Amino acid sequence: MPQKPLSSPRCVALVGPYLAGKTTLLESILAATEAIPRKGTIKDGNTVGDFSPAARSRKMSVELNVASTSFMGEKWTFIDCPGSIEFSHEARTALMVADAAVVVCEPTVERAMTLAPLLKFLDDRQIPHLLFLNKLDAVEIRIRDALAALQAVSARPLVLRQVPIRDDGETVTGYVDLISERAYHYKPGRASDLVPMPQSMAERQKEARQGLLEKLADFDDKLLEQLLEDTVPSKEDIYSHLARNLASDRIVPVLLGAAEKDAGVRRLLKSLRHDVPDPAATLQRLGLASNGGPLAQVFKTQHAAHTGKLSLVRVWSGPIADGATLSDGNTAVKLAGVMRLVGANSTKQARAESGDVAGLMKLDGISTGATLSSRGDVAAAKEAANPGSWPVAPKPLFALAVATEKRGDDVKLSGALQRLCEEDPSLSIEHNHDTNELLLWGQGEMHLTVALERLRTSYHLPVTGHAPQVPYKETIRKGIQQHARHKRQSGGHGQFADVKVEIRPLARGSGFKFEEKIVGGAVPRNFIPAVEEGIRDYLKRGPLGFQVVDVQAVLFDGQYHDVDSSDQAFMTAGALAMREGMPKCDPVLLEPICKVAITIPTDFTSRVQRLVQTRRGHILGYDAKSGWAGWDEVSAMLPQSEMHDLIIELRSATQGVGTFDWNFDHLAELTGKPAEKIVAKMRPQEEKAKAAS
Ligand SMILES: Nc1nc2c(ncn2[C@@H]2O[C@H](COP(=O)(O)OP(=O)(O)O)[C@@H](O)[C@H]2O)c(=O)[nH]1
Ligand SMILES: [Mg+2]
Q1: Could you tell me the distance, in angstroms and rounded to a whole number, from the CA of residue 685 to the centre of ligand 2?
Q2: CA 449, 455, 456, 458: dihedral to nearest 10 degrees?
Q3: Does residue 84's CB lie within 6 angstroms of at least one atom of ligand 1?
Q4: Beta strands 252-256 and 158-160: pairing type?
């Protein structure tokens, strides 16, 4: 075979469900390529991928990690992505700059569904990817069955490249490569041994090879003809069909192995070496234009205590030298350091070349997703920025109200939260004015737990997080007329104001309306705004303890005193009329209701409908989700008070893949026992507030 010319540095993202073995695979790759002298393990918490305290303590990746190495004279960067669905945005942004992805998964039938959202993302973006079926040392399932289950969730044909060799006890001891038709025995920590083809494998091998060729022939008429004529295509031809179809995301090659035992890892590296497109091809796939000048894209922003801001970039066109000025089309910044990354151990270097993944220091004002080019090239940067294609952060699904233990830490907290959100755009903050809480929004409980832990450890902020209050409101169901007089005689100036107010319910969604029908100057014009202000002030907390909405107050009569009347007195009288009148208006609690659209695989639809009903929800309907074969969308109205932990229960009922979109819809009356409970809970706060005022 002619020598393949050396490629520019390539980048591969390791993705797939949580616990599939991505971090272990990275460790094995780094050992096999001699980037590290000895392998760490998840158990001992000493892997390159999971070096952060948060990842170590959980034995689970909670952020992406980058490691560069070289294999057979070519440079590679691997990005180990967190698998948990709560961190999926992190994985998606890494995939945006990768030349290809290795989807690591366990060959099980039950967990196949968990791959569906990831495979859909890869196919929607046409990102070349192959499957690495891991943990072959520990599973007994037939690869065929696992493959069938995985095929059911992949829109692209899966093309098995190897078949396992098992010993008598059914343990996998090696594999047959279906293209080279050679048999190998796994050797822990070393390259596999070439062994004679076992007799027992002949038939299985032939059948699987035929399957591979037929799948490739679907995309090539010449190959199809050869197969029909029973001509055997050359190995070189098969390799080139594979590489071409992988690059255009038409097929998904499937490789086997056991990362923990280093089994199949060198084979994987070799096939990556052959088949992964180079950065120039990726640039074309992404539709980014390079005019030969420096071009890089930020896929992750980090803040560290001592080094400051670090932007992780893929260099599409280099070199990018330390000290260079880079621009995202709006902001131009001078680069203050180029880092080469291997887990926790980054080293400074003079420059990064085309294809490299590097850390660029102190790019203030530059955010994740930005395309950077040299300063004079603003137009090129703007054109290249292509903002429409960068994945938008998913809508938040879970919130905690956060507070610091010390009041004085509030400013520090808001700064720290801003940084967390810059590092991870799938987090967001909201100051809820109804409940006066600071809410941290994210993708699930684990996501927020990790964020709070960061605040405590990296920012030294002792914070607490609890379930947010529901912004209940209240209204009235009956109108009355109320007379109120405020009169005080205490030496010198007295206070006098007298008002008659009609209080009426309004239609839902009307808010508050004030009207005056004063005739003959019973209340002088200049005092009327004070009456309104007093009323509005009262409405912040009605008889049940919540903000009052959908009420009208009509000031229709009153009295005044030439000397003792004042704005202050009329304000007090307005509030008094409400305080005395409102409890007689049949007040009722209003609870916020959200419209939700729940996305789940069809198998779970009826279970999810029951789940909605047990949460006092009202199903509006369900339908096949467009663009998602085999998935449904259930739409429903759900009280907001039932939504705090909805995502947790939804995920546990749907193997983790169920999700939902939501929007506030309306306020609905809540009566009876549930309402009494909520009002009773509010009462102590009410009393405290009264005592304070
Ligand atoms: N039996 C077996 N276990 C593995 C293999 N690869 C990883 N594991 C184990 O699977 C668990 C999850 O591995 P990890 O690399 O953290 O998975 P990740 O969540 O995909 O990064 C760890 O306990 C690993 O030791 C393998 O090839 N065989
Ligand atoms: Mg991991």
Answers
A1: 45
A2: 120
A3: no
A4: parallel
**pLDDT digit string (tens) for 269-320?**
999 999 999 999 998 888 877 777 889 999 999 988 777 899 999 999 889 9
Residue with CA closest to ligand 1 atom 22: 42
- Ligand 1 atom at shortest distance from the alpha carbon of 27: 15
192 touches ligand 1 (CB under 6 Å): no
> Which residues, listed in sequence order, are joined to residue 67 by a DSSP beta bridge?
78, 342
14 lines ligand 1 (CB under 6 A): no
CB 317 within 8 A of CB 356: no
20 lines ligand 1 (CB under 6 A): yes
Quick one: which of 33, 422, 386 has its CA closest to 189? 33
Residue nearest to atom 7 of ligand 1 (CA): 21
Dist CA 262 CA 242 (whole Å): 24
Contact 447, 551 (CB under 8 A): no
Above pLDDT 90, what percent of the chain? 70
Number of other residues whose CB lies within 10 A of the CB of residue 243? 17
**DSSP3 helix / strand / coil % (the chain, rounded to 5):** 35, 30, 35
CA of 268 to the centre of ligand 1 (A): 17
Q: Could you report the per-residue pLDDT of 659-683, keeping only the tens digit for each? A: 999 999 999 999 999 999 999 988 7
Helical spans, DSSP H, in 424-566: 445-457, 528-539
Q: Is 259 in the pocket of ligand 1 (CB under 6 A)?
A: yes
Local confidence band at 689 (pLDDT 50, 70, 90 cut-offs): low
Mutation choice for ligand 1 from 19, 59, 63, CB with most ligand atoms inside 8 A = 19
**What is the rounded distance in angstroms from the CA atom of residue 401 to the CA atom of residue 403?**
7
Domains of the chain, first to last: 10-277 (3.40.50.300), 284-384 (2.40.30.10), 398-466 (3.30.70.870), 474-585 (3.30.230.10), 590-673 (3.30.70.240)
Cα(15) to centroid(ligand 2), Å:
9
Which ranges of 36-131 would DSSP assign to H, the alpha helix? 53-58, 88-96, 116-124
What is d(CA 433, CA 475) in angstroms, rounded to the nearest whole number?
A: 19
In this structure, what DSSP letter does residue 2 have?
A: P
For atom 26 of ligand 1, the residue with the nearest CA is: 135
Query: Cα(508) to centroid of ligand 2, in Å?
Result: 50
**Residues 596-637: pLDDT tens digits?**
999 999 999 999 999 999 999 999 999 999 988 889 999 999
The CA dihedral of 558, 561, 564, 570, to the nearest 10 degrees, is 20
Q: Whose CA is nearest to atom 12 of ligand 1?
A: 19
- Atom 14 of ligand 1, nearest CA residue: 21
Q: 69 by DSSP, 3-state: which?
A: strand
From atom 27 of ligand 1, which residue's Cα is the shortest distance away?
258
